[in-house]
Automatic annotation (TrEMBL):
The keyword Nucleotide-binding applies. Keywords: ATP-binding, Kinase, Nucleotide-binding, Serine/threonine-protein kinase, Transferase. This is Protein kinase domain-containing protein. InterPro entries: CDPK_Ser/Thr_kinases, Kinase-like_dom_sf, Prot_kinase_dom, Protein_kinase_ATP_BS, Ser/Thr_kinase_AS. Belongs to the protein kinase superfamily. CAMK Ser/Thr protein kinase family. CaMK subfamily. Belongs to the protein kinase superfamily. CAMK Ser/Thr protein kinase family. SNF1 subfamily. ATP binds at residue 38. SUPFAM superfamilies: Protein kinase-like (PK-like). The lineage of its organism: Eukaryota, Viridiplantae, Streptophyta, Embryophyta, Tracheophyta.
Length: 269
């Protein structure tokens, strides 16, 4: 562990592991307050790879976006020859992925406050020219029972000075990734609205809108983008919720809602 980190924080138990690092709970030696610290061993990542760009992108983007009530706050970065330590707001309430597994299905009134906070954070990101590109329930953390915090900006990118322009490159997770990304086309910030639409659908239905037995089948289903609302899962879902889902999951990017349009939709009121 980097000496400077140890001087300021007492590093405690491991709370998670990702592709690039291990996350520990830590406490400030001054205030006694708890935080999370994501520690990356730079020796495990080859110098000029895409992965090494990812680890440096995350603190840079978090610094750009902080503070926002629904984005994990960054407090400090410590770097030495071998390690990068990112001190973050501690989000120790169950993440959305595990909530979905435990609950199965959310009612509209249960999903609304979660999705609203999510879209408020997405709108803030997009205004700053940041596209997350990997929104999925595993990256939606909670700092308390009902406060959403978007995390894991390792796949995010900054595009233009607050102006989001066209991007390329396949980034994301099969069920949640937008069709234009898979098609290898240029894409923009609306890929995050698509992913958020998939998240809302999964919460209301208990299963994803575009499904397949293998990764290739999932990709094919996403590319077809044939949105259905099976009666067994949607019989009690309101027409307004379905209307919003259609607008968030529009294959035609120009017709797909922006984050601000989603926030203004009647279902959100
Ligand atoms: N601020 C935080 N507070 C509490 N737990 C966190 C925090 N950030 C991350 N974690 C936990 O640590 C785990 C690893 O997080 P990390 O961001 O390194 O990777 P990841 O989300 O699994 O994504 P990837 O491997 O795609 O980068 C997460 O699954 C989460 O459970």
């Amino acid at each position: 562990m980097t000496e400077a980190l140890n001087r300021e924080y007492q590093v405690c138990e491991e709370i998670g592991r990702g592709r690039f690092g291990t996350v520990f709970r830590c406490t400030s030696r001054i205030s006694g307050e708890s935080f999370a610290v994501k520690s990356i061993d730079k020796r495990l990542i080859s110098g000029d790879s895409l992965d090494s760009q990812c680890i440096l992108t995350e603190p840079k983007i978090l610094q750009l976006l902080t503070p926002h009530h629904n984005i994990v706050q960054i407090f400090a970065v410590y770097e030495d020859q071998f390690h990068l330590h990112i001190v973050l707001e501690l989000c120790d309430s169950q993440d959305l992925y595990h909530r979905i597994i435990d609950k199965g299905v959310f009612s509209e009134s249960e999903s609304k406050p979660i999705v609203k906070q999510l879209v408020q954070a997405i709108s803030h990101m997009h205004k700053a020219g940041v596209v997350h590109r990997d929104l999925k329930p595993d990256n939606i953390l909670f700092s308390s029972e009902d406060t959403v915090k978007i995390s894991d900006f390792g796949s995010a990118d900054i595009v233009g000075g607050g102006e989001v322009v066209a991007m390329r490159g396949v980034v994301g997770t099969p069920y949640y990734v937008a069709p234009e990304v898979l098609a290898g086309m240029e894409y923009n910030e609306k890929v995050d609205v698509w992913s958020c639409g998939v998240i809302l659908y999964v919460m209301l239905a208990g299963f994803p809108p575009f499904y397949g037995e293998s990764v290739t089948d999932i990709f094919d289903a996403v590319l077809r983008g044939n949105l259905r609302f099976p009666t067994r899962a949607f019989h009690s879902v309101s027409p307004l919720a379905k209307d919003l889902l259609r607008r968030m999951l529009s294959k035609d990017v120009s017709r797909r809602f922006s984050a601000d349009q989603v926030l203004r939709h009647q279902w959100m009121q």
